[in-house]
Design goal:
Helices cover 38% and strands 28% of the residues. The chain has 15 helices and 30 strands.
């Protein structure tokens, strides 16, 4: 050999080796980098919340007589205020503690002395004056941009009176609560020393011409044989009333009817009759927060019971305290719950049951606190008048392993469940971000697609490689491979707009064809055993079997199409879908797994067919010839010799097809209905991980809980395909070692 040419070949080999090595390493690096990237985005979901002390200062103009009844802070954590017994709101700079201004309020009768104040909603304060009257004041913060000073932003504030209530006609109550709704409905609750529980409701009388006269009704609420009322709360709109007692009962009233308030139920919350010390409503006014004398904190809401109707049920247990709970309050931003006891303040999230942050007593004892309306900050007040401003970093309080993968009891649900609902029409909704139904939907769709595609692809590969004529094989194999080039969006489009309505109209015929086609094939095989003795017909077996099989299948489908509607009318009253629902409770969804089996199976078949056919064709002809020479039939040779020898390749093709089905997006996006349910029924749809990412990511706020959860689903999808491919390679290597001698 020419030395120069030999040297050139070796040089080219070295170059090719380095190119292949670098290219392979680049691919591996790219895959690992993609995994790290998506994992990095989803990792903050599981980081612990944090708090940061931003400012600490001593209040000015505070005297022993001016007891502070309420605190508040704006959403920007710039301006805070305190309310004292004189009805004076004193505003101060949160960063430096410097006083800003004061705003004074008084009762309708001119009283200037407060007995108590309660905060609810977003900076709403219910003030009880010493003459028994009540007012509801709202602190309004709003940004102001000064055009004369380069549009410098400042936070301005004012006090708006939402409602006022006159004093009771007889005596001063020991406990009072009042609410006003957006439509002007006013509700006041008074608990008197004598034990009487009184409700006063005032609202506009409805008429054909709009609002009519204002009517007011007063009722005595019956308590029954329960302990003393120790805590009570109302919903923001004043339609629901709850009271807790010294012996552990919770009473629930419906105040929606102005003429007849109704006691809905009396529930014993604790078997040991522990005292209920604090009550409040979770943001959204569906769940009730209950604090007890043993430091327990739990949330409850009414659940429909088959025997008792709506029954108040304990749903979530949150991290409690070592001593009696003194106060509980909701976050005005989400479903978080703030509890206060002698050992400090604790913030937990109701849905995830996750403890977020806590504030322990230091050298000075905390006596009051307030959270910003965004939930991103807290100010605390000590018994020595020290105010601390804390910045909270709790980006994803509703996320935990339980909410992502476990059953969760959501508000208004009859039982714990897996659910996905990323958004709703109101700000107080409870996010439902369970990935379990999405993983289930991915596996369900893949299962039905493989159930349809795998037999057709493998048997088609066997026939094409072992039985078909070379000329026929030269046509069939390229035709099937071309199927892989069809865009999946086209397949999904046809499945959703053509196949789904077709199957829905001819559901009876489809099921009948599932019976007639196998029966016709078996019958034709039996008949062929007798007919094949004729010499001209016997030639058909040599690679032209499809000439006999195709007419049989077409005839079976035609018979099913003709007889299907008649049998549906005779057996199912003309509506198979309604019969399924009435008899089995199965609801037929036009976008179901039948459609997915056909559509996604159509996309998977070319991959499995091509790899399986290549594996079968690459089995040495000498092995096949030896089997036939020993007297084995063609089918015995295929089943006992060819298939085992080609099993590593067939299995690899099956796993690649499985991975292709797991990651499919467009077909399942267009043809499944995207219902995130956990039901194995073939008549229902599903929502797989890939389609969920495609649907949700355009609307997901960047770095929000939904956004990061979608990246977590991408990680899970990546891991699933990695596991499938790893298992496939391990099994393939073992099969190769076992049958390598062939």
């Amino acid at each position: 050999m020419n030395p120069a040419f030999f040297k050139k070949v070796k040089r080219n080999d070295r170059i090719a080796k380095w190119i292949i090595t670098v290219g392979g390493m680049a691919i591996i690096f790219s895959v690992v980098f993609i995994l790290i990237l998506i994992a990095k985005v989803s990792l903050p979901l599981f980081l612990a919340p944090d708090k940061d002390l931003r400012a600490e200062f001593q209040l000015e103009h505070k005297t022993a007589e001016d007891k502070i009844l309420a605190l508040g802070v704006d959403e920007y954590l710039e301006t805070g205020y305190r309310l004292d017994q004189t009805g004076t709101f004193r505003f101060f700079n949160v960063h430096y503690g410097s006083p800003l201004d004061t705003l004074e309020v008084s009762s309708e009768t001119g009283s200037r002395r407060l007995v108590t104040a309660r905060t609810y909603g977003r900076l709403n304060h219910m003030l009880v004056w010493d003459d028994g009257s009540v007012t509801i004041e709202h602190v309004k913060f709003y940004p102001f941009f000064d055009e004369k000073n380069d549009n410098v932003r400042s936070i301005r504030h004012r006090i708006e009176r939402l409602a006022s209530f006159a004093a009771p006609d007889y005596g001063l109550p020991v406990e009072t609560m009042a609410r006003v709704s957006d439509d002007g409905r006013q509700v006041r609750i008074d608990l008197f020393r004598s034990g009487e529980f009184q409700v006063t409701i005032a609202e506009e009388e409805e008429s054909l011409f709009g609002a009519g006269d204002r009517i007011e009704e007063m009722h005595q609420l019956e308590l029954g044989a329960v302990g003393d009322v120790t805590a009570m709360t109302m919903s923001t709109d004043g339609l629901k009333l709850y009271a807790g007692t010294s012996t552990g009962e919770i009473l629930r009233w419906d105040l929606s009817d102005i003429e007849a308030p109704l006691l809905k139920e009396t529930t014993r919350a604790f078997t040991d009759q522990r005292e209920i010390t604090a009550l409040n409503m979770v943001f959204g006014d569906i769940s009730l927060i209950v604090g007890d004398e043993q430091g327990g904190v739990s949330t409850w809401f009414p659940v429909r019971d088959a025997d008792f109707g709506w029954k108040l049920t304990r749903i979530h247990e949150l991290q409690g305290h070592t001593q009696a709970v003194q106060d509980v309050s909701p976050s005005p931003h989400d479903k978080s719950v703030i509890s206060f006891a002698a050992d400090g303040i604790k913030i937990s999230h109701m849905t995830s049951e996750r403890f977020l942050v806590g504030f322990d007593h230091g050298a000075e004892r905390i006596v009051d606190f307030a959270q910003s309306t965004r939930g991103n900050g807290v100010i605390t007040l000590s018994d020595h008048g020290t105010v601390q401003s804390w910045k909270l970093d709790i980006p994803h309080p509703e996320i935990s392993l339980k909410t992502l993968f476990g059953k969760v009891w959501y508000e208004s649900y009859p039982e714990p469940t897996w659910a996905w609902q990323s958004s709703a029409g109101t700000d107080d909704y409870e996010p439902k971000l369970s990935l379990t139904p999405l993983i289930f939907g991915t596996l369900k769709g893949t299962f039905y697609a493989m159930l349809f595609a795998l037999p057709l692809a493998i048997f088609g590969a066997i026939y094409t490689s072992q039985f078909a004529r070379p000329k026929f094989k030269a046509i069939i194999k390229p035709a099937v491979e071309v199927m892989a080039a069809i865009p999946t969006v086209i397949i999904g489009f046809l499945a959703a707009l053509w196949l789904a309505p077709l199957i829905e109209r001819s559901l009876g015929s489809m099921f009948l064809s599932l019976i007639l086609i196998p029966a016709a094939l078996m019958l034709s095989i039996l008949l062929w055993q007798g007919a094949r003795k004729v010499t001209p017909l016997k030639q058909v077996e040599r690679g032209y079997e499809f000439l006999v099989i195709t007419p049989v299948i077409v005839m079976a489908v035609a018979i099913a199409a003709v007889l299907g509607p008649g049998l549906e009318n005779w057996l199912f009253g003309g509506d198979l879908k309604q019969w399924l629902f009435n008899e089995t409770g199965t609801r037929y969804d036009p976008r179901n797994c039948i459609i997915i089996a056909f559509a996604m199976g159509f996309a998977v078949i070319p991959i499995i067919f091509t790899i399986a056919e290549d594996s079968l064709s690459n089995v040495p002809q000498s092995i096949k010839a030896a089997s036939l020479a020993l007297g084995a039939s063609r089918w015995q040779t295929v089943w006992r010799v060819i298939l085992p020898s080609a099993s590593p390749g067939i299995f690899a093709g099956t796993m690649i097809g499985f991975g292709r089905a797991v990651g499919e997006t467009m077909i399942v996006l267009m043809a499944t209905g995207n219902t995130a349910i956990m039901d194995l029924s073939i008549f229902n749809g599903m929502r797989p991980l890939s389609a969920n990412i495609a649907v949700e990511i355009p609307e997901a706020p960047v770095d929000g809980s939904l956004y990061r959860t979608l990246f977590l689903t991408a990680v899970i999808l990546f891991v699933m395909t990695f596991i499938v491919n790893t298992v496939a390679e391990i099994v393939r290597q073992r099969l190769r070692a076992k049958y390598g001698r062939f």
